[in-house]
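Researcher: Quick test of sequence recovery. Tokens follow.
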């Protein structure tokens, strides 16, 4: 009687081997740079907000 679930050799051996796949989209240097800028801006805004909450005067 067959077991339940995936019966592939890698599963039975106790390991899962993922097949590599290509990304659907390329991440450009411009996108990474813009993302970093936005992240830094968000961190700055959050820091200012937290400072205000600690000392609203």
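Model:
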């Amino acid at each position: 009687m067959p077991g339940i679930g995936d019966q592939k050799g890698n599963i039975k051996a106790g390991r899962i081997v993922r097949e590599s796949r290509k990304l659907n989209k390329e991440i450009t240097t411009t996108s990474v740079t813009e993302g970093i800028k936005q992240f830094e801006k968000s961190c700055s805004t959050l820091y200012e907000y937290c400072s205000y909450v600690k000392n609203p005067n």
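The helical segments are 9-12, 29-54.
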